[in-house]
Design a protein that fits this description.
The chain is α+β, with helices and mostly antiparallel strands. The protein contains 2 helices and 7 strands; from the N terminus they run ββββααβββ. A hairpin with a 7-residue loop joins strand 5 and strand 6.
Length: about 130
């Protein structure tokens, strides 16, 4: 089956050679994740592209910083993925580990994708 785009990070696949996103739902989710994880200036020819979530990793986990992150996500989605409707952006704290931030972005694509959620977890070493 033909794919829409390669899955990132690149992986080998016995059937297709390189693992591929085969549905629009997978592709939109991956593109939204890349938008959040990309830092401004990192993408060639689009220096303003990206939320730059890593810039917030060493900030205090307080409501004003979470509000700044949510605003940046809304701004970037409006600019680079205007076909997405953001339903909700929520942050979950982990009391046992104050260095971890959980981010959930609930979104939809009218007439194509209903109420999908992108969950990301950030700590001081990585995002996954």
């Amino acid at each position: 089956m033909a794919g829409i785009s390669p899955k990132l990070p690149l992986q080998l696949d016995k059937r297709d050679g390189i693992a591929l996103n085969k549905t629009l739902k997978e592709t939109v989710k991956q593109n939204l994740k890349m938008l959040v994880l990309t830092s401004p200036g990192e993408r060639l020819m689009l220096p303003e592209y990206g939320v730059g979530i890593r810039n917030f990793l060493f900030e205090q986990n307080v409501s004003s910083v979470r509000s700044d992150i949510a605003s940046k996500i809304r701004e970037q989605v409006k600019t680079y993925m205007p076909f997405i409707t953001l339903e909700d952006i929520t942050f979950a704290e982990m009391p046992e580990n104050s260095y971890v931030l959980n981010l959930a972005i609930k979104y939809s694509v009218p007439q194509i994708i209903n109420d999908e959620v992108l969950n990301l977890q950030f700590d001081n070493n990585s995002a996954y």
